[in-house]
Amino acid sequence: MKRKHNFKELQIWQKSRMLVKDIYKLTSEFPQSEIYGLTSQMRRASVSIPSNIAEGSGRKTNKEFSRFLEIAYSSALELETQVYLSFDLEFIIESVLEEFLVKIDELQKMISSFDTKILSETF
């Protein structure tokens, strides 16, 4: 089956993969007591972003793809909240908080922009 969008070529998918790697590195330094708590939640939310982009790219219509982009965007919002919570719980310092907020915000904007673009395309 030929896809309209090859997810491996999408910059949002590539950047979200890098974010997953960064989140795994970050959470590896969290307290062991958080392995089934915030660590697990942050890892799942981050993995959800590129996973939904990839899954959506295989859908037949851009409207269907858009729904998966919405889920990826929502996962980015979830991750953003979890980064704030990590700071609140003093697992990360303010400079790390800001670094991750910039990365997540950039990705959110890219997902939103791409979603708008594909919904305006006609095939």
TrEMBL record:
Pfam families per the UniProt record, alphabetical: 23S_rRNA_IVP
InterPro entries reported in the protein's UniProt record: 23S_rRNA-intervening_sequence, 23S_rRNA_IVS_sf
Top-level taxonomic group: Bacteria
Protein name per Swiss-Prot or TrEMBL: Four helix bundle protein
